[in-house]
């Protein structure tokens, strides 16, 4: 029978990561004495020192470092076990909250969702459209179960399925600029013209300019479709997803000004969700369904 607990392992990991018993206690929201006792219990059970307490900061011994690596794996498995148990206990969801971001090719995404929810009639789809940093905010604030947008892939709270790469192209209507289009058009030249930008639907927008040219006059719209119409009418210029303007670029109704100073950009479109939260059976089936679609595309 094992005499140590997961709490004892948490104490070991926290002390090694934080470098002191007090910092570990703060991280774990436990008392200094409780953390000290947890380490003492491990050392007494295994009959060896796991920490070198001789310096200003406690350091792991060789044995302590070896157990630290294994403790991390055990704690990760324990969290996965707990998450799976919570999923099983949830039962079938009555609704799923899905956010479609501004970069999505909507017909394709809506077609996928329509087919899936047709086979899950007891779960209602709550669908929202958000722009710029709105989808990520909804996900991180737990206002959404799933988003179709780009995500911060360095965030350990998230997992994702790669769906597509979306190119955004800076475009104008013919005659809008009044001078020849070259690949050397500068920001100073474009400051004379109105730039059409999307309204960020986040309650607390992130500090990112998303192609906004500082110092230029701007008009703000709710979605790319309205943005496209304004640009087609020669009222402004701006970046649009290439899949939305392929025909207009081929026919000459819109012209690309991509070049040295306006290279455009490619964003990764993903299905994203929280990896640190439980997901019910329907949400899990939807994720597996999207996985299949991603493999087939």
UniProtKB/TrEMBL annotation:
Transcription regulation keyword on record: yes
Q: Which Gene3D superfamilies match?
A: 3.40.190.290, Winged helix-like DNA-binding domain superfamily/Winged helix DNA-binding domain
- Ranges of residues in domain HTH lysR-type: 4-61
Q: What is this protein called?
A: LysR family transcriptional regulator
Q: Give the record's family classification.
A: Belongs to the LysR transcriptional regulatory family.
What is the native source organism of this protein? Marinobacter iranensis
Q: Which UniProt keywords apply?
A: DNA-binding, Transcription, Transcription regulation
In terms of superkingdom, the source organism counts as Bacteria
In the UniProt record, does the keyword Disulfide bond occur?
Answer: no
The record's listing under InterPro entries reads:
LysR_HTH_N, LysR_subst-bd, WH-like_DNA-bd_sf, WH_DNA-bd_sf
């Amino acid at each position: 029978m094992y005499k140590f607990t997961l709490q004892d392992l948490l104490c070991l990991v926290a002390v090694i990561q934080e470098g002191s018993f007090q910092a570990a206690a703060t991280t774990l929201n436990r008392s200094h004495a409780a953390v000290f006792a947890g380490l003492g219990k491990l050392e007494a059970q295994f009959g060896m020192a796991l920490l070198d307490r001789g310096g200003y900061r406690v350091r792991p011994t060789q044995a302590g470092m070896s157990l630290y690596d294994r403790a991390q794996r055990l704690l990760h498995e324990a969290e996965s076990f707990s998450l799976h148990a919570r999923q099983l206990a949830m039962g079938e969801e009555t609704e799923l909250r899905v956010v479609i971001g501004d970069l999505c090719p909507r017909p394709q995404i809506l077609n996928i969702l329509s087919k899936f929810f047709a086979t899950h009639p007891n779960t209602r789809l709550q669908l929202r459209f958000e722009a710029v940093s709105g989808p990520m905010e909804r996900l991180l604030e737990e206002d959404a179960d799933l988003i179709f947008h780009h995500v911060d892939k360095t965030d350990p709270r998230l997992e994702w399925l790669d769906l597509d790469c979306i190119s955004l192209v800076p475009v104008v209507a013919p005659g809008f600029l009044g001078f020849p289009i070259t690949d050397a058009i500068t920001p100073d030249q474009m400051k004379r013209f109105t730039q059409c930008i999307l309204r960020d639907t986040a309650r607390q927008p992130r500090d990112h300019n998303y192609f906004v040219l500082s110092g230029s006059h701007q008009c703000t719209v709710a979605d790319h479709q309205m943005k496209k119409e304004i640009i087609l009418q020669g009222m402004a210029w701006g970046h649009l997803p290439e899949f939305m303007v392929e025909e207009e670029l081929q026919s000459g109704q819109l012209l690309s000004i991509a070049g040295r100073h306006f290279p455009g950009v490619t964003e990764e479109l993903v299905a994203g969700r929280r990896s640190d939260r439980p997901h019910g059976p329907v949400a899990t089936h939807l994720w597996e369904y999207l996985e299949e679609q991603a493999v087939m595309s």
